[in-house]
Amino acid sequence: MTQHHDSHDHGLAHDLPRMLGRRRLLAVLGGLGLASASGTLAAAAECIALPWETAGPYPADGSNSNRAGDVVNVLKQEGILREDLRASFGDDFSGDVDGVLLDLELTLLDAEGCTPLAGYAIYAWHCDGTGEYSLYDVTDANWLRGLAVADDEGKVKFTTIVPGCYPGRWPHIHFEIFKTAEKAVSGEASELTAQIALPESVVGPIYSKDDRYGDSLTNLQANSISQDNVFGDNTDAEIEQQTLVMTGDSTEGYRGSVVIPVDFKADRTVSMAPPPGGMPPGGKPGDMPPPPGGQPPKKPGSE
Fold this sequence. Notes:
Blueprint: H1 12-19, H2 22-32, H3 40-45, E1 61-65, E2 71-73, E3 101-110, E4 115-116, E5 121-125, E6 145-149, E7 155-161, E8 172-178, H4 181-186, E9 192-197, H5 200-209, H6 216-221, H7 236-242, E10 245-249, E11 253-262
Parallel strand pairs: 3-11
Antiparallel strand pairs: 1-2, 3-4, 3-7, 5-6, 5-8, 8-9, 10-11
């Protein structure tokens, strides 16, 4: 008689990810009121370590300079620790941005064991609806940048807008994770530098109907996430893990969530190719990898 060695005694957290798709599982858990039970069941469903990505040309973390040759480091500016990213902060900067509301919830996990990274800090930044970045394209503003510290469940919340899409890139949000907020502002290297992708099914309709997003729809339709020079070399599982799950509508705004598992032993080098045919007109060529060797051990100009 053939015996089937199925697993029966490992509990719900073990069995559910095998029985259901990962995204469907999270919806089921939310409906049962179980998705936030210490993050255990949700973590069992989503714990694929994100690969290191380039910080791009506009990190404002002390690692590069603006067009005037000045080192740009928003992490040293008073007020960077904040939740609402839509307005500039500090006496030297002004202005805010307009766009579709996006309430972000990011969950930081240790990929080994899927445990919350309580007390870790995450610095997030992204472009506005027309693809411009503060402190570089708009030098007198520092909007759409902020630092926050994870709670006991590893969760961080930001209020921002849905970013636009510029030539040569898939719509995205940049981030860097640090062991503490103090390490972030002191210029130490991040524990993970990566990017969050936005879902085409949600941003496409936003771009098509909202004049605040300029040429974003045209730029989106000219690219695909599989051809993107950052996301294109990631596995399907990695892309799914780093893609924002969005619910809501353009009138009331969206809620976006993503789980970010960090592999502290990961290869920190970044290897990727330019888009097919090279960078299109209007693209941002600095969204390319850093020099060979990956991220520097310490940010130049940060001291």
